[in-house]
Write a structure and sequence with these properties.
The complex is a heterotrimer of chains A (325), B (496) and C (262).
Chain A: H1 10-19, H2 22-48, H3 52-73, H4 78-102, H5 107-128, H6 130-133, H7 137-142, E1 153-155, E2 161-163, H8 164-182, H9 184-192, H10 194-199, H11 204-245, H12 249-274, H13 278-296, H14 302-311
Antiparallel strand pairs in A: 1-2
Helix pairs in contact in A: 1-12, 2-3, 2-8, 2-11, 2-12, 3-4, 3-5, 3-11, 4-5, 4-11, 8-11, 11-12, 11-13, 12-13
Chain B: H1 7-28, H2 39-51, H3 55-80, H4 84-93, H5 95-104, H6 110-134, H7 139-163, H8 167-170, H9 174-177, H10 185-204, H11 206-214, H12 216-221, H13 226-248, H14 253-267, H15 271-294, H16 301-319, H17 325-354, E1 362-363, H18 364-371, H19 375-387, E2 391-394, E3 399-402, H20 404-426, H21 436-442, H22 448-457, H23 473-478
Antiparallel strand pairs in B: 1-3, 2-3
Helix pairs in contact in B: 1-2, 1-15, 3-4, 3-10, 3-13, 3-14, 3-15, 4-6, 4-7, 4-14, 5-6, 5-7, 6-7, 6-13, 10-13, 13-14, 14-15, 14-16, 15-16, 17-18, 17-19, 17-20, 18-19, 20-21, 20-22
Chain C: E1 16-25, E2 28-38, E3 43-47, H1 54-61, E4 69-74, E5 86-89, H2 103-108, H3 123-135, H4 151-164, E6 169-173, H5 181-196, E7 200-204, H6 208-214, E8 217-222, E9 224-230, H7 231-234, H8 237-244, H9 248-261
Parallel strand pairs in C: 3-7, 3-8, 5-6, 6-7
Antiparallel strand pairs in C: 1-2, 1-4, 8-9
Helix pairs in contact in C: 3-4, 6-9, 8-9
The chains are: A mainly alpha (325), B mainly alpha (496), C alpha/beta (262).
Chain lengths: 325, 496, 262
């Protein structure tokens, strides 16, 4: 065990990443932050719609889309990848709908069948054409965020350049943020009550598919560097933590972004310390934040509940008049 | 055994699957770069597989089939209890346990890994329940976050293990996507024991599992310890997941639980048959996956098994006799065709009736006017009648004569319509001008026994609310015009 | 404890005795201090507005919900020791009707309480199940999948399952909800038949006008027991008004119901 967990060293694991490895680490943290922000904001709406696991499904099933896009275009260009992911995402959404509407198989099983099938196809394609696709099986799961800083750079200005994945993810995150601000009420109403949305002239079906499309885009831009697991986790964890800490959607969104930043930053340090997968470490930190919120949330945390439980004595209902028998 | 799907069919299906797989590889062999393999070695590998001389092949195949049985049976329960995605969360949650079990003595000791994984899986399921009960998060979010949290802890541990001096040889990464070829004698022994235990427990407590799954409240009232049954089920589910891990991989285990069971769910209406079918499907997909992954050195087993299961599900989804999409479509289509035929017959009857059943053929033009449809449509419908031997066409297909069969059917449909109208106006007090629409629909579905009851209830009335005669049995059989008088009128509608 | 066991004239303990039962979800009480002793051989209707805790009462009485305080005895002992004497008809919506069982399987579940842990249903159990199906006129449907039944037929099958339990005390949760008139009449006839055999029945009922004709005794419930007694004593405007509070639509219905009584 001792060789597995190295002793914690403040200088080496907390200070050094910012003094010695700043140039690389800043991109890693930024990448993690962008992924977590974009996924977290989309994930909030998925959770409100009770579709968190559809998000899980789509993040798995974009894989064959990406693989086929690679094979057909012989390039790792952004456009074919986005198209591949969009198509795969749509196929998943439709497949789930079809299986669940056209047979008596329930929605949960339909999700399970659809995404595992597509993911299996993706993994097989990757293992068959490993040399062409330039992705390996493990990478699909937990990515190689540590390689992000060494990617091909985009020259933004003469003095400033950013690695392509970070740049791309940053744009996706910013666009997500803009969408969430601009279409706040449409998204809220259609997530809360599709019937009401329709009566207000908002096309709920369109919003649904638009959300799924955007989810696919977000997933695919994150996929290559951080893998499926970080995407799934970030769709749910920062948002779930925020849900425990507030009842109001704007605050929840803000907290989601905060959690995204915290888990990305803490994840880097954890991974430096334990020398393990960085994407994995970021999720572990996000989970730790969730557990902390679960226990200590002032709204409804376990601690508050426990205290309330101890003080609990039932008040008789007032308005009822009891008639003696 | 199921009457829908005798085992021979399933075996056939399996061979078809394998053959398809072979074919695909054969075709692909030239273009694909599967390592350094050429198509001849693919065939050699296939040959090696089917001779079963290599112990590795025997273990892989046996193990895959055992896990298929186990997952199929346990999967059936989670599918009918709508817990399918609990299976998914559980299967991801075992990963840290696998890593811990591996660390126990830094070797791939199946028992240590088995225990570690089972415990981790159970903690994961318990965490889902705890989050659901103590926060306002819904079940889907709880499942998703437990899945992600546990899995990421597992990933961190796996990457840490790989960094160990012994780590790279450990093969702990094989747990992610599965490699049936890595199964050893000890693994298969453990799998066999677990499968036997699973089948034994399910067999012994079948009725308790059945009633708990269907109606937990009722089960408790009849004295079944529902909580105990639930936890036993979760424990066995964890067992099934864990023995499947090495061959299928963490990521795709849930498919082995859900897909064969869902396919079986579409094929039968009894739980015990569903269990048997799901076990067979699971076994078949397991065997298919083991075979396919054996063909190439770096091919993962899990995804192939999953595709095998998906193929079975796809076939069931489309062709299941009761619930299949195609069969349902076919039934709907043949029903609507029948309704159309019956409506045409009815129109012919109406035309005949309007001219007092003069024994002449009805022309297509008359019908077109009556039904306000184009001549072409009418001709199409008439040919349809001819194809079913309900009518003959003469004068260059312009005149139609009903056969005795056709006459009977026409009479029956008009009778149904008018009886129903009469019933609605008499018994249900519906106004006479409101009954036609309803009768238009009901006339096609009234069975003979219902008709007998209606006739009796209506005192064998002869006229409908609009004053028209209701054709009776005698008219139908004799091919005569409906009447109160019994005449031996000849051959209305018969060929002249 | 024995002092608490109230006895009927025959000397046997009352079929159902509920003492100071309080049930709460989170912090909100749903049932408060319910005290009821149901005498043997009665058909009891439990009536009250939506959210009055009618279903909660029978579920808590059968031990399906955790109670905050109070106790329930069935024939003088806790239910756990006496579950063979209790039959239950849950709400129709509480189960998944796509579940892969047929009508016969479902009715046989009623026999499970009488079987040993490892024992399978015997030929005799099948005979009993068939008789029960016949009583609700569903025998021709014995091999049907339960999804292919109408609402009324599903309710009849549920009833048959309860009959197969051969219990002495029955709890029924809205057995008349969403059934056709013919089924409703058949069910009420069956309930009266059971009563005449000395069984005790507690039926959650939401339709006030029919309640007066259907039941011997009424339990008016709105979180507390407003009144419990023979129908003709309890079915009065004042008591019903107290049960239903200020709900006007119901009140007019009550007024109507009481008027037709005289």
């Amino acid at each position: 065990m001792s060789e597995l967990i190295p002793p914690f060293d403040w200088q080496q694991h907390v200070i050094a990443p910012w003094t010695e490895g700043f140039g690389a680490n800043i991109w890693i943290v930024l990448m993690g932050f962008f992924v977590a922000t974009a996924c977290g904001l989309v994930g909030n709406y998925l959770m409100m719609r009770r579709m968190a696991l559809v998000g899980d499904a789509i993040s798995h099933s974009v894989l064959p889309g990406i693989a086929i896009a690679f094979l057909l275009s012989h390039s790792r260009g952004t456009v074919p990848m986005f198209i591949g992911a969009l198509v795969a995402g749509m196929i998943t959404t439709i497949l789930i709908e079809v299986i669940h509407k056209k047979s008596r198989v329930k929605q949960d099983a339909a999700i399970g069948i659809a995404f595992t099938t597509l993911f299996a196809i993706g993994v097989i394609l990757i293992s068959l054409y490993a040399s062409q696709v330039d992705l390996d099986q493990e990478c699909v799961l937990y990515g190689e965020i540590a390689f992000v800083p060494f990617g091909e750079p985009v020259q933004l200005t003469d003095a400033f350049s950013a690695p392509v994945p970070v740049f791309r993810m940053g744009i996706v995150a910013v666009i997500t943020l803009i969408f969430v601000v601009l279409f706040y009420k449409q998204l809220l109403v259609s997530s809360f009550d599709a019937g009401l949305a329709t009566s207000l002239g908002i096309n709920a079906t369109f919003v649904h598919y638009a959300l799924m499309c955007w989810l696919s885009i977000t997933v695919v831009s994150a996929f290559e560097s951080v893998g499926a697991i970080l995407v799934i986790a970030m769709l749910i964890l920062p948002g779930a933590t925020a849900f425990l800490l507030s009842h109001r959607l704007p605050v929840i969104h803000a907290l989601t972004v905060l959690m995204a930043a915290l888990s990305s930053l803490l994840g880097l340090h954890l991974a430096t310390w334990l020398d393990c997968s960085m994407a994995g470490a970021m999720v572990v930190m996000a989970s730790v934040l969730f557990v902390l919120a679960w226990i200590f949330s002032p709204l409804d945390g376990l601690l508050v509940r426990w205290v309330r439980q101890r003080k609990l004595h039932l008040e008789p209902p007032e308005e009822i008049i009891v008639v003696p028998k | 055994m199921s009457r829908h799907h005798p085992p021979s069919t399933i075996n056939c299906l399996r061979y078809v699957l394998i053959a398809l797989g072979l074919l695909w590889f054969g075709l692909d062999g030239h273009a694909a770069k599967i390592g350094e393999m050429s198509d001849t070695t693919v065939l050699e590998q296939a040959g090696r597989f089917f001779t079963f001389q290599d112990p590795a092949v025997r273990y892989a195949l046996l193990g895959s089939m055992l896990l298929g049985i186990c997952c199929g049976v346990m999967g059936s329960f989670i599918v009918v209890r709508k817990l399918a995605l609990v299976g998914d969360a559980l299967s991801h949650a075992v990963l840290p346990g696998v890593a811990l079990g591996f660390l126990w003595n830094t070797s791939k000791d199946p028992v240590a890994i088995f225990i570690g994984a089972t415990i981790a899986g159970l903690i994961g399921t318990a965490a889902v329940g705890a989050i659901k009960h103590t926060t306002k998060l819904k079940e889907d979010a709880a499942l998703g976050l437990v899945l992600a949290a546990f899995f990421s802890v597992g990933i961190c541990m796996v990457t840490m293990i790989q960094r160990l001096p012994t780590g790279n040889k450990s093969g702990v990464d094989k747990f992610l996507f599965g490699q049936a070829a890595a199964l050893g004698a000890n693994d298969v022994k453990l799998m066999a024991i677990i499968t036997v235990v699973t089948l034994l427990v399910i067999g012994l407590f079948y009725k308790q599992f059945l009633v708990t799954s269907f109606d937990a409240g009722f089960a408790r009232v009849t004295g079944v310890p529902v909580q105990v049954m639930h936890y036993t089920l979760m424990l066995m589910l964890a067992f099934a997941v864990v023995i499947a891990l090495q061959a299928v991989g963490v990521v795709l285990v849930s498919a082995m639980l859900i897909t064969p069971a869902a396919a079986a769910y579409l094929l039968t209406d009894r739980l015990h048959r569903m269990l048997i079918l799901a076990a067979i499907f699971g076994m078949a997909s397991g065997a298919a996956g083991a075979f396919m992954s054996f063909l190439g050195p770096s091919l993962p087993t899990g995804p192939f098994m999953v595709l095998g299961g998906s193929a079975v599900f796809g076939a069931a989804f489309l062709f299941a006799p009761q619930h299949g999409v195609i069969m349902r479509w076919w039934r709907r289509r043949s029903r609507s065709l029948r309704v159309q035929r019956e409506n045409t017959l009815k129109s012919i009857y109406h035309v005949l009736e309007a001219r007092d059943f003069k024994p002449e053929g009805v022309t297509a033009k008359e019908l077109a006017e009556k039904r306000r449809e184009t001549l072409e449509d009418i001709l199409g419908q008439l040919r349809e009648l001819r194809r079913h031997d309900l009518a003959t066409l003469q004068d260059d297909e312009q005149t139609v004569f009903l056969t005795p069969d056709g006459w009977q059917r026409a009479c029956a449909i008009v009778r149904n319509h008018r009886l129903w109208e009469l019933y609605l106006t008499n018994a249900a007090q519906v106004a006479a001008d409101h009954v036609h629409e309803d009768a238009e629909k009901i006339e096609h579905v009234l069975g003979e026994d219902v008709v007998r009851q209606l006739e009796k209830r209506l005192n064998y009335a002869t006229h409908d609310p609009h004053g028209k005669l209701i054709p009776g049995e005698a008219d139908m059989l004799r091919g005569s015009a409906p009447s109160e008088r019994i005449t031996d009128a000849v051959g209305y509608g018969k060929r002249t | 404890m024995s002092a608490n066991i109230s006895t009927t004239t025959s000397g046997e303990a009352a079929p159902l005795e509920i003492h100071d039962l309080t049930v709460a979800y989170q912090k909100k009480p749903v049932l408060w201090g319910v005290d009821v002793t149901v005498p043997k051989g009665n058909l009891v209707g439990i009536v009250g507005p939506n959210g009055a805790g009618k279903s909660t009462l029978i579920k808590a009485a059968m031990g399906l919900l955790p109670v905050s305080s109070g106790w329930v005895k069935v024939f003088g002992t806790p239910l756990k020791e006496n579950f063979r004497r209790v039959g239950y008809v849950p709400q129709r919506e509480s189960v998944d009707w796509d579940f892969p069982v047929n009508v016969m399987d479902l009715v046989l579940m009623g026999r499970y309480g009488h079987l040993g842990v490892f024992q399978r249903p015997t030929k005799r159990d099948r005979e009993i199940a068939k008789e029960c199906l016949d009583k609700v006129k569903m025998l021709p449907y014995a091999n049907r999948q339960i999804a292919n039944l109408s609402g009324g037929q599903q309710q009849r099958v549920f009833l048959a399952r309860a009959l197969a339990q051969e219990a002495d005390l029955y709890f029924m949760d809205e057995p008349f909800a969403g059934v056709d008139a013919a089924t409703e009449a058949a069910i009420i006839e069956l309930l009266h038949e059971l009563k005449s055999k000395g069984k005790t029945l507690l039926v959650v009922h939401h339709d006030l006008p029919t309640a007066r004709n259907y039941f011997d005794m009424l339990l008016l419930l709105n979180m507390r027991v407003v009144a419990f007694g023979p129908t003709e004593e309890v079915f009065t405007y004042e008591l019903l008004q107290k049960t239903y509070g200020g709900r006007l639509t119901i009140l007019s219905e009550v007024a109507e119901a009481v008027r037709t009584k005289t």
